[in-house]
Design goal:
8 strands; globular; about 20% strand; about 40% helix; 9 helices
Length: about 220
């Protein structure tokens, strides 16, 4: 089939139309603040690994204090790694992945994944950065307070009703952050970010890619 070359004015019209449509979609997505990241929930108190000592601790177990490694394990499963808190803990224990017996060294993720996922930041409760990470399809590990103790959850996206959605390893469920920990601005103590070797992740690079794809489609017609 032979395609006729488009006139300059028609190409400009198509580009403008593509940008307008993409911008409309982008605006609607921002207004809804709804992400589609689906990450399987894991619980630190799962009987398959709950009783295992956390690192070399003589008192803590995955069930009692393994929220950080369980949050990371959920994230790694999202990125396609076949792992769980028990396997991750076993590797960390022999590979010097803990400090002070059972404190996760976050950068140990780099070695465990052989570079497929890398630790990229230990930061304060930057809600703008959290939005950027989630929009790009990258889950975020967040430090919170649970019953007055340090706890970690995995931020997975937003709900259509509004607000961040989390996978909580202590309760082994997925809920809105606000419903359990209140306002994220005060409920999040700090965050840990990670970068996959394929920055596009499983969600195809986030919302901004819609605009790029629309313009690219016009270029292909030229």
């Amino acid at each position: 089939m032979k395609f006729h070359l488009l006139s300059g004015s028609l190409r400009l019209t198509l580009v403008a139309s593509a940008i307008a449509v993409a911008a409309t979609l982008f605006g609607q997505a921002g207004a809804l603040a709804d992400s589609s990241t689906s990450i399987a929930v894991m619980g630190q108190q799962d009987g398959a690994w709950a009783g295992a000592p956390l690192g070399t601790s003589t008192t803590d177990t995955i069930g009692s204090a393994g929220c950080a490694i369980t949050s990371v394990a959920m994230m790694l499963r999202y990125y396609g790694m076949n792992t769980d808190p028990g396997a991750f803990n076993a590797w960390l224990t022999v590979a010097s992945g803990y400090a002070f017996d059972d404190q996760l060294i976050w950068s140990a993720v780099d070695g465990y994944t052989v570079g497929r996922v890398r630790f990229s930041g230990w930061l304060g409760a930057d809600l703008g950065l959290i939005d950027n990470e989630l929009d790009a399809g990258r889950p975020v590990v967040a430090e919170v307070q649970l019953y007055g103790n340090q706890h970690f959850v995995l931020l997975t996206g937003y709900s259509a009703e509004g607000g961040l959605v989390i996978n909580d390893p202590w309760f082994a469920d997925s809920v809105r952050f606000n419903d359990r920990y209140g306002d994220p601005a005060s409920g999040i103590v700090s965050i840990r970010t990670f970068m996959p070797a394929d920055p596009g992740g499983q969600r195809g690079g986030g919302r901004v890619s819609w605009l790029a794809n629309a313009i690219a489609a016009v270029h292909l017609s030229q």
